[in-house]
Specification:
heterodimer, A: alpha+beta, Glutaredoxin, 2 domains, 7 helices, 48% helix, B: 1034 residues, alpha/beta, Rossmann fold, five-stranded parallel β-sheet, 40 helices
C-alpha cells in the first residue's frame, strides 16, 4: 500500500505513553497491556490500523506481532485498510430486516455503486453494515458519519446519500 | 465536588439537592438518547434558544433525559409540572411550547399523543395506554433524569442502596437478600443471580472481579443500551453492591463499540462517582474500594459469552473456552469473576432499597420481577416496554404495543434473538417467563421481541439468523463453524428456489449435530431459529421447496413481483396496470386473461391477495388492483375475441361442475388446444358465482360476460346434467376427469329446533333467490356466522323485505372472516351486528321460528391460528325474538362423484397432490371448494389452471400456457414515485337506493380515476430487471 509509506507514528507513541502511564498509576497489574484499547485509540486517530503502527505497538508492548494481527483480524471493528471520509453504516438487525432493511441496502448500494465493506475509488465513502445498532424501534436505521437516521425507506435513504454527496462537492 | 466522607454526608447532600429542585420552575424533558435518530437534539437546541430569547433561563430547564421508551412517537418532549406529553416534536414547535405550555400553562392540542384506537388526544404521560399498561420499575426514572447528572440520580434515591449495604449489611446478607428476592440473570439463561454471587464469594482469590456485560449483541434488543445511556449510575451502583457482596476490588463495564453514547455516558458517570467518593478507595468513608473502567467491545457477538468476554478483556481473540472451571472460580486473569448483565445489575439497587418481599410480589412463581422487552418489527408502538414476568405476548403486543399496523395478523414473534425461536400466534396468551419460553422452543433471551406479520417470510428469517451466527461464529470448534455454514447453504438454496426433497430432514439432522457438538452457547443455540420455525411453520418450508412459492412474497429470488407472486393464478399484475396507465384497456384485459379468464368476476369479488403484498404500502397505500381489474373488464371493446384459436372436435376431458375451478380448467385446456365438456347439474353455469354471490355484489351480466368469453374458446357446456360417478366418465371415453363440484351444502348448527319452518341456511337462501325460486323472508332475521356468506345472506334478507336483520357472531368484528368492506357496506345498509354470542336452541311456536336462544361469549386464549377462542359465559343465556334463522357457519364439500373412489386424509378431506390436483385415482383430478371446503374464487381458478396444465402433460402435451407478458414498459416518473398519493376509492350506490333491489352497490372507477390509480404503480418488475445480480459473499 502506497499510503503506508508516510505515516506519522507520533500519535501511536503518545497512546502507548498514556497507556503505560495509566498502568503505573494503578495499584495492580490488572490494567496492563490491554491491546484492544490501544488499538481502538489508534484507529480513532488514523481511521484504520496502519501496519507500521501495529509493528510499533508490538515493539513497545512486547506482544508478538502475530498475536496483534490475530486480534485485529478477529474483531469486526478493526480495519487494516484506510476507509473513506464519509462512513455509512446500515443496520442489518432483525427489526431492520423485517421492516425492509434489505431494500434500503439495495437502494444505497445502487446510489453509491458500492458493496458493503468497500470504499469508493476516490476514498470518499465507505459503506458498511452492522449486525444491529440497537435502534430497533426506529428501524430501518442508517448511520452517516456517526449520526443516526431512523424510520427510513429506500427512497429516503437514497435522498440522504445524495445529500451527503452534494455537501461533499460544495 | 467534594468527596463524600460518610453515609450521612450522602443523605445530607440528597436533602440539599431536593430542596433546591423544589424551588425550581418548569422542566422540559427531551429524550436525549434514542430519539436522537429522529432529531431530538435539534429540538432540545431549539428549546434552549427559545428560552434564552425570552430570558427564562432561571425558571425553565431543558433536560436531556434518557430514553422515554416510546420511540415510535419520538422526539418526545414532556413539560413538568403537569406531565404534558408532546409527541413527534419538531424544532419549529419549540417557541410555541415555551410560550404556551411553559409560560401560559396552555396545552398544544396538535402535539398531543393521539390514541389510534379511540382517536382521542391524551395529555398526561401516565394516561397514555402505552405507559399506563406497563409496570415501569427499572425504566421509571429514565425519562426524569439527566443521565449525565449525578445530582439527579442522588435526588432520586440514587446510591441509597449502596449506602445501606455498606453501613447496615454484611456481604453475606446482601447475597441472601438477592438470593431470596428470586432475581435471575437477565442476559438470557435466567441463572439465579444470588447463587452466582455466592459461588464467586466462596471461591478462593485475592483480586476478584465484577464485570458488567453490556455487549448487547442480539439483533433486536436494545434495553441494555437504553439503561446505560439513560441511567448509567444505576448500573454503577448495582456493580458496587455486587462487588461488595462477592468481595471484588476491580471491575469492568464491557460495552459494545456500536453504542458510542452508552460508552460516553458510562465513562462520565464513573468519573463523577469517583470524584464523589462513590467509587475508588474508601467508598463513603468505609473500607470498601472498587475501581471501575470501561472496555469497548470491538464488534464480536461471541464476546457476549462469558469466557469469550474474559478473553477479550484480556486483550486476546474473543474465543470461548470449555467450562469448568467457571469464571466464578477462574475468570479474568485467573481470578474469580462475576459477570452480570446490565438489566440484572439495574435490578440490584431496587431490591436493596425496597426489600426482597416487594420484589417477590412482582412476577410469577419461578420468575420474579419485571422484564424489559425491546418491542420492534411490525407493531404500532415500537419501543422499550417493561412488564412483569408472566405477562402475555398479547398484553405486550396489543395492549401496550397498540397492535399491528394496517390491522394485519401477527404471524409469529421472534423472541430471544439468534439463540431464541419464533413463537407462533397460537401462544399469544401464554404467560412469558423463563420456563414457559423454553417449553415452546424459544428462550426469554435478552428480551428482544420482534413482531412479524404475514409479510414476513419464516424461512427467510431462519436464513437471516443463520447468516448472522455463521458470520459471528468464532471458528474455534468445528460443529459451529462448519455446521452453521452448511445450515446456511441449505437455507439459502431453499430461499432461492433451489430447495430439494429431503432438505428439511437434512436441516433437522444438521441442527441436532450443531446443537449437541458445539463448545459454547452460540453454537449450542444457533440452530434454535431453524428448529422452532420447522416446528411451527413446516408447511412454509415445503411450499418453498416443492412449489417454489413464498407466501409472504419476501424471498427475492422466488418473487418476480410481490403482487403477481401473491396471486394464486399468477396474473402479471404490473403489466396490466401499466397498460391501464397507458390507456390500453383492451391489451390490459388480455394480460389478465392469460392467467385468469374471470376478469369481471375477480374485478368485483376477489379477495385480492395481490393488494396485501403491494409495495406501494411503504409509501402510502396499496394500489387498488381489484378496482383496476374491474375497470379494464368493464371498459374494453374486445368483444368476444378469443385469446387463442377456439378448439373443436371430440372432448378429451370431462369436467364436473361449472364453477370457477371447472370453467377455468376448461378454459386453460382450450388455450392448450384440448377439448373438454363441462357438466353442470343446475340450469345455469357459474357455480357459486351464479348462485352463491348475490347480484348486488356480482351482477348476472358481469358473470355472463366472463362465461361467454370462456365458452367462445370452444368449451362444451351441458347444464341440467348431474354426474353420479366420475369413473363412469372415464369408461365413456374421456381421458381425464376433473371434479370441481364445490361445497354447496351449509353446515348445520346442530341445535334444537333447527328443522322448524323459518330456518334456512344461507347457501340455500342465496341459491333460491338466484334461481328465481320463491323465497319468503321473515320480518326479523337472525343470521348466524361471520363469513362472506353470512353477510351476503343478511344483506339479501334486507333487500327481500326484512325489517331487522341481525348478524350473530361468536367472536368480535375484528375476527370476522368476511371482507371488511362488505361488513362496512352491510352495516351502512342497516344490518345489526351482535358480537360475542352463540346460538343454543331455536324457539318455536306452532312449528315456526319464534326466537333464538343465545349465550354470551367472551374471548379466551388464542387458537392454533392466533384468533382468540370464544368461551361461553355460564348463565348468560337470553332469547332474541325473530321469525327467521339463517345459519351461515360453513360449507360442506359436495363429493358424490368421487365418494366411492378416492383416498381420504386423516381429517376426511380428499387427498390430492398440491401441484397437480390429481387424486389417488389416476386420471381423476379434483380441486376448488370441494377440496378446500370453501376457499376464495381466485384459489379455485388457480386450481383449475394447475389441473389443466397437469392434464395436458398427462395427455402428452407440454403444459405450457401462453407467455405471461403484456409488453408494457410504462414507468412512473420520479416525482410520481416520491409524492404520496391516496388510493382511489370506488363510488358506491347511495344507501337509500340499496334496500329496494339487487342493483350493484359498488360503481367502479371511471377512466380518469382509473388512469390516475394505475399511475401509482411503482413497477417493481422493471426495477428488478435493472438490479444487478446479488454478489455471493463467501
Amino acid at each position: 500500500m502506497a499510503v503506508a509509506l508516510e505515516i506519522d507514528l507520533a500519535p501511536v507513541e503518545e497512546i502507548l505513553e498514556k497507556s503505560a502511564a495509566s498502568r503505573n498509576g494503578d495499584d495492580e497489574e490488572f490494567c496492563s497491556g490491554d491491546i484492544i484499547s490501544i488499538l481502538q485509540e489508534i484507529q480513532r486517530i488514523y481511521g484504520y490500523l496502519p501496519f507500521e503502527a501495529l509493528r510499533r505497538v508490538s515493539q513497545r508492548t512486547g506482544v508478538p506481532e502475530s498475536r496483534i494481527q490475530g486480534v485485529v483480524t478477529f474483531y469486526a471493528q478493526f480495519h487494516r485498510e484506510p476507509r473513506g471520509r464519509h462512513r455509512l453504516t446500515l443496520c442489518c438487525g432483525t427489526s431492520c430486516h423485517v421492516r425492509g432493511g434489505n431494500k434500503l441496502l439495495d437502494a444505497v448500494k445502487k446510489v453509491l455503486d458500492l458493496e458493503p465493506g468497500s470504499t469508493s475509488a476516490d476514498s470518499q465513502v465507505t459503506l458498511e453494515t452492522a449486525a444491529c445498532l440497537g435502534a430497533c424501534a426506529l428501524s430501518p436505521v442508517m448511520v452517516i458519519n456517526g449520526k443516526y437516521y431512523g424510520k427510513l425507506t429506500p427512497r429516503k435513504g437514497e435522498r440522504l446519500v445524495r445529500m451527503m454527496a452534494r455537501e461533499e462537492q460544495t | 465536588m467534594k468527596r463524600l466522607g460518610t453515609v450521612a454526608e450522602l443523605h445530607a447532600w440528597r436533602e440539599r439537592i431536593r430542596a433546591n429542585v423544589r424551588k425550581g420552575g418548569h422542566t422540559i424533558a427531551v429524550c436525549g438518547t434514542g430519539c436522537d435518530a429522529v432529531g431530538a437534539s435539534e429540538v432540545a437546541e431549539a428549546l434552549d434558544r427559545a428560552i434564552a430569547q425570552r430570558g427564562l433561563e432561571r425558571s425553565v430547564l431543558v433536560k436531556r433525559t434518557g430514553c422515554h421508551g416510546f420511540c415510535e412517537q419520538g422526539p418526545i418532549v414532556v413539560v413538568r409540572p403537569g406531565d404534558i406529553f408532546y409527541a413527534r416534536v419538531e424544532p419549529a414547535d419549540a417557541a410555541e411550547i415555551v410560550d404556551k405550555s411553559v409560560a401560559g400553562g396552555e396545552i398544544i392540542e396538535r402535539l398531543l399523543y393521539k390514541d389510534p384506537v379511540t382517536g382521542e388526544r391524551v395529555i398526561r404521560e401516565q394516561d397514555i395506554p402505552f405507559y399506563a399498561r406497563q409496570t415501569r420499575v427499572l425504566l421509571r426514572d429514565n425519562s426524569r433524569m439527566d443521565p449525565l447528572s449525578l445530582e439527579d440520580y442522588v435526588a432520586n434515591d440514587g446510591y441509597a442502596a449502596l449506602a445501606k449495604a455498606l453501613s447496615e449489611m454484611t456481604p453475606d446478607q446482601v447475597i441472601d437478600e438477592i438470593l431470596e428476592s428470586g432475581l435471575r440473570g437477565r442476559g438470557g439463561a435466567g441463572f439465579p443471580t444470588g447463587v452466582k454471587w455466592r459461588f464467586c464469594r466462596e471461591a478462593p482469590g485475592e483480586c476478584k472481579v465484577i464485570v458488567c456485560n453490556a455487549d448487547e449483541g442480539d439483533p433486536g434488543a436494545f434495553m441494555d443500551r437504553s439503561l446505560l445511556e439513560g441511567a448509567p449510575h444505576a448500573i454503577l451502583e448495582g456493580m458496587c453492591i455486587a462487588a461488595y457482596a462477592i468481595g471484588a476490588r476491580r471491575g469492568f463495564v464491557y460495552v459494545r463499540a456500536e453504542y458510542p453514547l452508552a460508552v460516553r455516558h458510562t465513562r462520565i458517570a464513573i468519573e463523577q462517582a469517583q470524584q464523589a467518593g462513590l467509587l475508588g478507595d474508601r467508598i463513603l468513608g468505609t473500607g470498601f474500594r472498587l475501581h471501575l473502567s470501561v472496555r469497548e467491545g470491538a464488534g464480536a457477538f461471541v464476546c457476549g459469552e462469558e469466557t469469550a468476554l474474559i478473553a477479550s478483556l484480556e486483550g486476546r481473540r474473543g474465543t470461548p473456552r470449555t467450562r469448568p472451571p467457571f469464571p466464578a472460580r477462574q475468570g479474568y486473569r485467573g481470578q474469580p469473576t462475576t459477570i452480570n448483565n446490565v438489566e440484572t445489575l439495574a435490578n440490584v439497587p431496587l431490591i436493596l432499597r425496597h426489600g426482597k418481599d416487594w420484589y417477590r410480589s412482582i412476577g410469577t412463581d419461578a420468575s420474579k420481577g419485571t422484564k424489559i422487552f425491546a418491542l420492534a418489527g411490525k407493531v404500532n408502538n415500537t419501543g422499550l416496554v417493561e412488564a412483569p414476568m408472566g405477562a402475555t405476548l398479547r398484553q405486550i403486543i396489543f395492549d401496550i404495543g397498540g397492535g399491528i399496523p394496517r390491522k394485519r395478523r401477527v404471524k409469529a414473534v421472534q423472541m430471544g434473538g439468534p439463540s431464541g425461536g419464533c413463537v407462533p400466534a397460537q401462544f399469544l396468551d401464554l404467560p412469558i417467563d423463563y420456563e414457559s419460553m423454553k417449553e415452546i422452543g424459544a428462550i426469554m433471551g435478552s428480551g428482544g421481541l420482534i413482531v412479524m406479520d404475514e409479510l414476513t417470510c419464516i424461512v427467510d428469517i431462519a436464513r437471516f439468523f443463520m447468516e448472522f451466527v455463521q458470520n459471528e461464529s468464532c471458528g474455534k470448534c468445528v460443529p459451529c463453524r462448519i455446521g452453521t455454514r452448511h445450515l446456511l447453504d441449505l437455507l439459502t438454496r431453499i430461499c432461492e428456489g433451489q430447495g430439494q426433497e429431503g432438505d428439511i430432514e437434512r436441516l433437522e439432522e444438521l441442527a441436532r449435530l450443531v446443537k449437541a457438538g458445539s463448545l459454547c452457547g452460540l453454537g449450542q443455540t444457533a440452530p434454535n431459529p431453524v428448529l422452532s420455525t420447522l416446528r411451527y411453520f413446516r408447511e412454509e418450508y415445503e411450499e418453498h421447496i416443492r412449489q417454489r412459492h413464498c407466501r409472504a412474497a419476501a424471498c427475492e429470488a422466488l418473487v418476480e413481483t410481490p403482487c403477481s407472486h401473491a396471486c394464486p393464478a399468477g396474473v402479471n399484475v404490473p403489466h396490466y396496470i401499466g397498460l391501464i396507465a397507458e390507456g390500453r384497456e383492451n391489451d390490459a384485459v388480455n394480460v389478465v386473461r392469460r392467467r385468469n379468464p374471470f376478469v369481471s368476476v375477480c374485478g368485483r369479488v376477489c379477495d385480492a391477495p395481490c393488494e396485501t403484498r403491494c409495495r406501494r404500502v411503504d409509501l402510502d397505500e396499496p394500489l387498488a388492483i381489484r378496482a383496476l381489474k374491474r375497470y379494464a373488464g368493464d371498459h374494453n371493446d374486445n368483444g368476444r375475441a378469443t385469446l387463442t384459436r377456439p378448439v373443436s372436435g371430440k372432448a378429451e376431458v370431462a369436467i364436473i361442475g361449472s364453477g370457477p375451478a371447472g370453467l377455468a380448467c376448461a378454459y386453460f385446456l382450450a388455450l392448450l388446444q384440448r377439448c373438454s365438456t363441462v357438466f353442470e347439474a343446475l340450469p345455469i353455469p357459474g357455480g357459486m358465482l351464479a348462485v352463491g354471490i348475490p347480484e348486488f355484489r356480482l351482477p348476472k351480466a358481469a358473470l355472463q360476460a366472463d362465461i361467454d368469453f370462456i365458452l367462445s374458446h370452444g368449451v362444451d357446456l351441458r347444464t341440467n346434467t348431474r354426474i353420479g360417478k366420475a369413473d363412469a366418465l372415464l369408461s365413456q371415453g374421456y381421458r381425464a376427469v376433473f371434479v370441481a363440484t364445490g361445497a354447496q351444502t351449509g353446515q348445520p348448527l346442530n341445535i334444537e329446533g333447527e328443522r322448524s319452518a323459518g330456518v334456512i341456511d344461507a347457501l340455500s337462501l342465496l341459491r333460491r333467490r338466484a334461481l328465481g325460486e320463491p323465497c319468503h323472508c321473515g320480518k326479523i332475521v337472525a343470521v348466524v356466522g361471520g363469513g362472506n356468506a353470512a353477510v351476503d345472506a343478511a344483506r339479501s334478507a334486507l333487500r327481500l323485505g326484512a325489517e331487522t336483520v341481525y348478524i350473530l357472531y361468536r367472536r368480535t368484528r375484528e375476527e370476522m372472516p368476511a371482507y371488511e368492506e362488505e361488513v362496512e357496506a352491510g352495516l351502512a345498509e342497516g344490518l345489526e351486528l351482535m358480537e360475542l354470542v352463540a346460538p343454543k336452541r331455536i324457539h318455536t311456536a306452532d312449528g315456526r321460528v319464534s326466537g333464538i336462544e343465545l349465550i354470551k361469549m367472551r374471548l379466551g386464549e388464542a387458537d392454533s391460528g392466533g384468533r382468540r377462542r370464544p368461551i361461553p359465559v355460564e348463565g348468560s343465556e337470553f332469547v332474541l325474538p325473530c321469525d327467521m334463522v339463517v345459519p351461515a357457519i360453513g360449507q360442506q364439500p359436495s363429493l358424490e362423484p368421487v365418494n366411492h373412489l378416492v383416498e381420504r386424509t386423516a381429517s376426511g378431506a380428499v387427498r390430492v397432490d398440491a401441484r397437480t390436483c390429481v387424486t389417488s385415482v389416476a386420471r381423476i383430478f379434483a380441486g376448488g371448494d370441494c377440496i378446500s371446503g370453501g376457499g376464495t374464487v381466485i384459489e379455485a381458478i388457480a386450481a383449475g389452471q394447475r389441473t389443466a396444465v397437469a392434464i395436458d402433460r398427462l395427455l402428452g402435451g407440454s403444459g405450457v400456457l401462453p407467455e405471461n407478458t403484456g409488453g408494457s414498459l410504462w414507468r412512473p416518473a420520479a416525482e410520481q414515485m416520491a409524492a404520496a398519493s391516496s388510493r382511489c376509492k370506488e363510488d358506491m350506490l347511495p344507501v337509500e337506493h340499496r334496500r329496494n333491489g339487487f342493483a350493484e352497490v359498488v360503481a367502479g372507477l371511471g377512466p380518469l380515476h382509473a388512469r390516475q390509480e394505475a399511475q401509482r404503480c411503482m413497477r417493481c418488475d422493471l426495477e428488478r430487471r435493472h438490479r444487478r445480480p446479488v454478489k455471493q459473499e463467501r
